[in-house]
Amino acid sequence: MGEPASKVNVSREQLATAVRALCADFGHDYWQRADEARAYPHEFVDALTEAGYLACLIPEEYGGMGLGVREACVILEEINRSGGNAAACHAQMYTMGTLLRHGSAEQKRRYLPGIASGDLCLQAFAVTEPDAGSDTTRIRTFAERRGDRYVVNGQKVFISRVRQSDLMILLARTTPIDEVEKRTGGLSAFIVDLRDAGEALRTAPIDTMINHESCEVFFDGLEVPAGNRIGEEGRGFRYIMSGMNAERILLASESIGDGMYFIDRASDYASARKVFGRRIGENQGVQFPIADAYMDVRAAAAVRDEAAREYDGGEVRGEGPNIAKYLASRAAWKAANVAMDTFGGWGMATEYGIERKFREARLYMVAPVANNLVLSHVAMHVLGMPRSF
Q1: What is the pLDDT of residue 133?
Q2: Active-site option among 129, 247, 254, 355
Q3: DSSP string, 292-325
Q4: Is 36 assigned a catalytic role?
């Protein structure tokens, strides 16, 4: 196993090298077996936890590495570039945006040390609902205040890693939408301890085209202590956006890693594979698309880097994170298709890994936010155009 980078004065290059060394212990065969078995990669997640990488955003006073989103981007990018799938564990990073920026001092003392050590797992981020989709303001899951607790009823969908988590960040309505001035009001965020949920919380796995541990979640009278509410009641939408902006930046990094995986593999294969007596990479029809895809990935990485710097500096706007996610997901998908064309029929064979990563790369075109909604966000909130829906 690779040795973790030092927590003090770590450079991005050192961090990338250390993560790359750890990932070398989990090669293609490991990920292929997990994909075929639809198994959660516990061994890989445990190794990341032990090395401290999943606690990179947690301050050192709580046992974390005390790094920023820029360093978290390096970790996730290297995992995906190595052929792995960081979606198995990335939520423990981006949920930190909500907890670190808006959680109380007592909540941080109670949960962060355990998360940093690996004794607690925070991998579930419960926002999406069947009827609301990407329109978060229309969620129906309701948390009713009853004395010193809230009672939650409702349903969430596409909630990943809930069965592997001890804790969940939950967004629920605490005031009906028809009773608030702005539809973003009346939403509250909570830390849910899943270990205490019992029969009040039920999960149902969702089968998807990739090995992405995801479930429907049903709440039936789930009691959550009032002390587990994050920040003020009714302002949860704003708090959740801290996590969502971090999520966009970090998932852009995974797409960038995927893009480089495809480009690395396609370049190597084109340089070695001979057809009609010559290496296929000698043909401009093969090498030019690979070079073109590489430049798109580099451009997306530049936007991602800027968004990460701004986020670490306290920026709260969604412009940079959303654009980074949009450009990176498109660049990765372009690189995926270029790699499939380069490998030809062998790209369909599981032994090369292209088809698995091809399926994984497609996800970020539609989730966690559809790219059409990113276009809408930029049109409305950046360019000042009227709402289109």
Answers
A1: 81
A2: 247
A3: HHHHHHHHHHHHHHHHHHHHHTT---SHHHHHHH
A4: no
